[in-house]
Automatic annotation (TrEMBL):
Entries under CDD domains matching the protein: TM_ABC_iron-siderophores_like (cd06550)
GO cellular component, one term: plasma membrane
Protein name: Iron ABC transporter
Membrane topology: Multi-pass membrane protein
GO molecular function: transmembrane transporter activity
Transmembrane intervals: 21-41, 76-94, 106-125, 131-150, 162-182, 210-234, 246-271, 291-310, 322-341
Natural source organism: Salipaludibacillus neizhouensis
Gene3D superfamilies, per the entry: ABC transporter involved in vitamin B12 uptake, BtuC
Family under the similarity heading: Belongs to the binding-protein-dependent transport system permease family. FecCD subfamily.
Keywords from the UniProt entry: Cell membrane, Membrane, Transmembrane, Transmembrane helix, Transport
Highest taxon in the source lineage: Bacteria
Compartment(s) where it occurs, according to its Swiss-Prot or TrEMBL record: Cell membrane
Amino acid sequence: MNSLPVLKNNLLHSYIPKHMTAVLVICLVLLGLCIVASLVFGSRPVSFNELIDGLFNPNVDSYGANVVRKRVSRTVFSLLCGAALGVSGALMQAVTRNPIADPSILGVNTGASLFVVSGIAFFNISTANQYIWFALAGAMITAVFVFGIGSMGRGGATPLKLILAGAATSAVLSSLVIAIMLPRSYVMDQFRFWQVGSVGSANWNDITTFIPFLIIGIVIGIISSSALNALALGDELATGLGVRTGVLRLVAALAGVLLCGATTALAGPIGFIGLLSTHVIRLILGPDLRFVIPMSAAVGAIILTISDVSGRLIGSPGELEVGVVTAFIGAPILIILATKVKVSSL
């Protein structure tokens, strides 16, 4: 028992990784490049002068300057959504002790989608505020259901059972979404562009609605990071260190679902960002969630913004929705992780 205070002290006050400064600088540089690329590239690339006019000369009313101004909200929204999904993935992996947990893999995105399409079909919802509350309800109910199914039987909520439960639940909910949409053409018209996941229709009202959910989720994630480090050692040892594991799991899971649900409500079900960003950071900085959670926000923002720009370039003169791009990148990586990494626990 004498070792417990020492272990607790090490968990709460572990050393900062030696290359943390370098990682921060690289992330800031990449974020800057992503912002510039998102403002410049698209179906109509803009010049440097048009970029400057669009950002700093409100009196200039040229086509290029207006294009830049329109892309500013899209860029900000892309960064915020990527940050939210990155932190959501990190929290879900920590709570489930599953290294390949992700909102899309566990069916949480699909649950949010079902509730949104149900709201459109049966309650005539049409605003961002309405979308968010329906999506959050769907995401939370689905998360509880998947975790409950995955916890049944011997061994509790193992990674494999959670993935299977998430896949099965997602398949059933996707069928329900289609069943609701097919006889209602107006619902299909309103829902089909949202369903693939896109940040292209973002506006400042969406961003204003989204920011409080983002702040609450990330703050909870950062505050709970030290306790989640203890949880990674196992429930018994975490309890011995003074961690209330049940409360911790509930609060951290709610924060993850909050971030995922709010993002899904406004941008659609964008998958694999949480999976990719968290694994990149763990590979570089190690498993300490005090660093993984906030840095997953930065890497998630980078990945989603790069994916959005890539979709615009690949689909030019139109665009390929970002949800398609992230799925194309993330699915092979998930297969590699599932076959190569030990997924029994973190």
